[in-house]
Design brief:
Layout lengths: L11 H4 L7 H4 L8 E8 L4 E8 L2 E17 L13 E10 L5 E7 L3 E16 L15 H6 L9 E9 L16
Antiparallel strand pairs: 1-2, 1-4, 2-3, 3-6, 4-5, 5-6, 6-7
Amino acid sequence: MATLTDLLWPTYEVVADVAPRPWNELGGEFLEGHELLDVRLDPGRSTVGAMIIDGPDLRVVVARRVRAVSWELGTHDLPRLGDRFAREVGISALSTTPDGLLRWGLRVERGSDLIVTASEFACYQVHVDGLPDAPPDYTELDDAAIYLQRPDWTSPFRLLSWARRTADLESPSGRLPGVDGT
């Protein structure tokens, strides 16, 4: 059975039985109000994956052929040692850079921003058995109890739907961005 890690560079078999949907039905504002659970950076494959809890399901947003990634956290919002904050998505937006790449901006409550620039983005809606209907209570539970209620990248899943957006890599000058000084 496939695991969430397999979504970073999925084989055809992972998505073969589910028809793709338009990006605006799975990504974008549909992520708002849900909890950002985890972000994974795989520099060897130039990918970034983000898990977002969507009720009893999970959305996994994957950026492939990543050019830039940044995570900004206001200093007033750094948790004390041993504390944990839930990070609710406030704004999610996909835009195009002047070079034709895609930029995904994710504004998360408590003053955090995740910005990823890449050639391709995919959003997968998946079901992970055992995921509760709501995020864990971070104020009452210890880390061990919280981790029992959260999926991780090794969790098996069932694909419900998916969408993909790719960049137009031809810049107005006709050259590929980032090549020959463009």
